[in-house]
Amino acid sequence: MPEPILESLAVGPLPLINHFLRRLRLDELLEDAVQDRDRRRKLPIPRALGVFVRNLLLSRYPLYEIPQWTKGYVPELLGLAPAEMRLLNDDRIGRCLDRLFAVDRAQLLTALVVGMTREFDMDLKILHNDSTTITFTGQYPHRGGGEASPLHITYGHNKDHRPDLKQLLFDLTVTEDGSVPVWVGLHDGNVTDDQTHLDTWTALRQIVGRPDFVYVADSKLCVTETLTSITGQGGHFVTVLPRTRKEERWFKEHVQTHTLPWEEVWRRPPARRQEDPAEVYQAVESPLRSAEGFRILWYHSSVKHSHDQHVRQSRIERAVAELEFLRNRLGTRKWKQPRVVEDAAVKILETLGAERWIEVRVEPGEEVQFRQAGPGRPGKTTAYRRVSHPKPKLHWTIREDTVAYDAKIDGLFPLLTDLDKATPKQVLLWYKHQPRLEKRFEQLKTVLGVRPVYLKKVERVEAYLLLYFVALVVAALIERDLRRAMKQQHVPMLPLYPEKRDCQAPTAERVLELFANLRRHRLLQEGKEVHRFRDELSRTQRQVLRLLGVPTDSFLT
Fold first, then answer.
1. Which domains does the chain have, with CATH numbers?
2. Angle at Cα 114 formed by Cα 111 and Cα 118, nearest 5°?
């Protein structure tokens, strides 16, 4: 009789992920959207798309080499029968993405989010919006307009600081309740944020079912047409007043000559070092409303005050050092013309952002030298001749009046809102949730690895990014439910960091890593299973599952 063979396949965090996918009803929603009734199809498209979502959450190289990746996992946990594992290949992956692009993705997304908000009892009173760019390389020809045509991957204002590469605009809206994504908008690479907000707000209104939620966004929301349209339909907003607005310049002038009734509205511990002072926010309402008639609330942050001072002083010091270096080179071959020297000095100030505080002046000048008129050793009767060379004179002065002016407005920033009854503290706290949305972008680009994108059809790229949204939703729900359960059950820490160090605010990445090494083992004799066993769950793993409401039996595969 041949020796038995040990089969060892990964279980990992798949049962946990499947728990949340079932609550989202992803398989049912995909079946309703795709409506694949082709009986000849060996692998249903919705099940293949479900595999892709799991791959995005777990793979370090998502959506690439999926056939090789699936071979390491228990098939049933991927939603596949063992015989279906071999059906996954690059061609089938591409065709599934093509089919997903062809469905009504807006309707699919709305159904997913509406069901999620009911299932997870989510609060949709406050919604936060921002955008990022997804960077691409290669040729992506534009196929013209039309509702069904794919997006235009092209050059634009790249938020990854890669203006040399093409991009798409990825517009994301999250709840204040756990920063869970509730809407995604994909736009052409050359679209700016101010063009997207009204369409996004309209889609959110359909999801929420009413218009009176608070829409929080950055300064690109501050467009008169957009703001009046939102408020005209019964909506509310909080945004940053742009620096280009006249109301912003008026208040900074007003501060110079008036004493305002600043009031402390919020104080929080230092973000980094414990020995640092607490961050204090003061607020005052501007006596002048916006041109549209909305409230302008001005805030003073102690941390921003110190930061503004440090930035200004650093720029002045660096500019002075560069100007000193330039002065020492005057009179050499390249630096003999006053116009050339002045252009170089101005460029230094512009590059360092110090032109507001330093004034430069260049004057013609010369350097005089006396050289021996004839050959031989110099003596008492040696004649000398006078030789002069152009050497411009570079002068600069610090504009003390401008420095003093800016010192009075250090730490200030304005928020614009239509909510007359909201307190300055409440408006500030709504706005201060925006950095958590930035964390979702970080999760998208680093943890989930949205880049690089090796797909060459724009239709498949759009479908691919929709699946990324679903994966981002699952990750956010894991974090939200775990943190809420920890708070409700008075669990201050979980040992999720390396070396079992305590973690106060667990992320989805840490939770999935906790279960990464779980495996299922089978002894096979002549192709038949004779014994099955699995890795035991640790105490921490059981605690996390209990907090998330995931039955441990789901790991008994």
1. 5-103+460-555 (no CATH), 111-235+418-454 (3.30.420.10), 308-407 (no CATH)
2. 135
